[in-house]
Specification:
Phosphatidylinositol Transfer Protein Sec14p, 5-stranded mixed beta sheet, alpha/beta, CRAL-TRIO_dom_sf, CRAL-TRIO_dom, single chain, 47% helix, CRAL-TRIO domain-containing protein, 271 residues
């Protein structure tokens, strides 16, 4: 952006922020960077941006057990982050996409608590969306890539899915997310993949399902889509150990705790 377009963009965000603060359907406060993400996500169409924002907070407030009653430092969050990794990776692809990596580090199906795990992931995204995507400037991504390592998943994990929470999450992802999901990569896919797809398919929109890539034989096919320098060391990349990247982000979430639990940012007071 040049100086004039920067000023015009900021003026639009000023307008959006005043609209937000005056809107009784929305919380009292909003992070400005989050507003920029919504506006960018909707291709800088003001009306579409306002609609998506209202849907976002409508879904949040209809399902407070996932979106509002939360704490990144409580026991349920610690449980999720101990057995599962949900880690935004540093850097952006050449298309300016941000990558989030998911995997189990404990394959015991009894550790899985799907609703609590969904709540934890929403906190991860809410924390990240109020921060720039590159540490050294205010750059925002143009989209999101998600990578799921399916190692350790089995049919018992499928049985522990909460269909109600899965439906809420997929609706939120499709209708209310403040970023555009570009691709979802499933690596180290298990032999029961067809069973898993048959369970999940009714909950995934056609638009989202088209974004999913299944890497069933080797990880090399992932490198065709994701630069190796952005991947963790354990996956043939050069971004550092996933455990170290996770520890850094867990600390960031703890630092952002006041923001994540402040009802003024999330709760709509009117009935």
């Amino acid at each position: 952006m040049n100086e004039n377009s920067d000023a015009a963009f900021e003026a639009k965000i000023d307008y959006l922020q005043k609209w937000f603060e005056d809107n009784k359907k929305l919380p009292k406060k909003v992070d400005r960077l989050l507003l920029k993400r919504f506006y960018q996500c909707m291709y800088e169409n003001m009306e579409d941006t306002q609609k998506r924002i209202e849907i976002n907070y409508l879904i949040r407030n209809r399902h407070p057990h996932i979106f509002l009653i939360r704490d990144p430092n409580d026991a349920s969050s610690h449980h999720t982050f101990e057995y599962a990794d949900m880690v935004p990776l540093p850097g952006l692809t050449k298309e300016k996409y941000k990558i989030t990596f998911f995997r189990l580090n404990d394959p015991d199906p009894k550790k899985m608590k799907f609703t609590e795990d969904t709540k934890a992931y929403i906190m991860v995204t809410d924390c990240r969306f109020c921060m720039p995507d590159l540490a050294d400037d205010d750059c925002l991504s143009e989209g999101e890539l998600q990578i799921f390592d399916m190692t350790g998943f089995n049919v018992q994990h499928v049985g522990r899915l909460s269909m109600a929470s899965l439906h809420i999450y997929m609706k939120f992802l499709h209708q209310a997310f403040p970023v555009r999901i570009k691709h979802i990569h499933m690596i180290n896919c298990p032999s029961y993949l067809d069973t898993l797809i048959s369970v999940l398919r009714p909950f995934i929109s056609k638009e989202v399902f088209k974004l999913i890539y299944f890497h069933t034989t080797r990880i090399d096919t992932l490198y065709e889509h994701v630069p190796r320098e952005l991947l963790p060391d354990e996956y043939g990349g050069f971004a550092g150990k996933l455990s170290d990247l996770k520890a850094q982000f867990v600390q960031v979430m703890s630092d952002k705790r006041d923001y994540l639990i402040d009802p003024d940012y999330w709760k709509v007071e009117t009935s």
